[in-house]
Amino acid sequence: MGKIVVSEFLSLDGVMEEPDWSLRYWNDAIAQFKDEEMTSASALLLGRVTYDGFAEAWPTANDPMADQMNGIRKYVVSTTLQKAEWSNSHIISTDILAAITKLRQETEGNLLVAGSAMLIQMLVAHQLVDDYRLLVYPMVLGKGKRLFQDGVAATLTLSELKPMGGGVVALRYQSAAKGEH
């Protein structure tokens, strides 16, 4: 059975939206962290907005990770997307929770979720996230979509804390036993 792994770039105040602000901190340690994350992923699980952005950027990207991003299986959760044209893409549009649960059971390795704020809120609310891999940046943005919205509760266990340079910290949390809050 696979794990659902949420990966996010976060400001200190928990903002995950439009993480272009993180680019000035990019370094070899962060690149290695992201590479390890992709290497352990069997597939991407994405919301529609993140999928659209990735599908536009990655096919023509001049980036060492482009081949991985373009080749990996991708599942996009959307009730409005009619066609997923990016290579190896599949749409989940009906009975979403059951489809994700089945996908998780049938997958060896990690289902990696990046961006996808609305999808993450649903996964957290239904206790489907196994692992959080967060890169926390030394800035407060004051506004924007946050990883955890009001009303969302989760009990997590810190499994890794690693300085990444420039004030960035990698945090890895695992979900506590189901039913704990």
As a percent range, the share of strand residues is 25-35%
Number of strands: 8
Span from first to last CA? 24 Å
Tell me the number of structural domains. Answer: 1
* Total DSSP helices: 5
CATH architecture: 3-Layer(aba) Sandwich
**What structural class do helix, strand and pairing data support?**
alpha/beta
Q: Which value, in Å, is the CA radius of gyration?
A: 16 Å
The global form is globular
Describe this structure in words.
By secondary structure, the protein is an alpha/beta fold. It has a single domain (3-175), classed as 3-Layer(aba) Sandwich (Dihydrofolate Reductase, subunit A), CATH 3.40.430. It has five helices and eight strands. It has helices spanning 28-39, 48-57, 66-71, 96-106, 117-125, and strands at 3-11, 41-47, 73-77, 89-92, 110-114, 131-137, 156-165, 168-175. A hairpin with a 2-residue loop joins strand 7 (156-165) and strand 8 (168-175). The longest helix has 12 residues, at 28-39. The radius of gyration is 16 Å and the shape is globular.
Secondary-structure map:
Layout: E1 3-11, H1 28-39, E2 41-47, H2 48-57, H3 66-71, E3 73-77, E4 89-92, H4 96-106, E5 110-114, H5 117-125, E6 131-137, E7 156-165, E8 168-175
Parallel strand pairs: 1-5, 1-6, 2-3, 2-5, 3-4
Antiparallel strand pairs: 6-8, 7-8
Any key phrases for this structure?
globular; alpha/beta; Dihydrofolate Reductase, subunit A; 181 residues; 8 strands; single chain; 27% helix
In a few lines, what is going on in this structure?
It is built from 5 helices and 8 strands, in the order E-H-E-H-H-E-E-H-E-H-E-E-E. The protein is of the alpha/beta class. It has an 8-stranded mixed β-sheet with strand order 4-3-2-5-1-6-8-7, with helices on both faces.
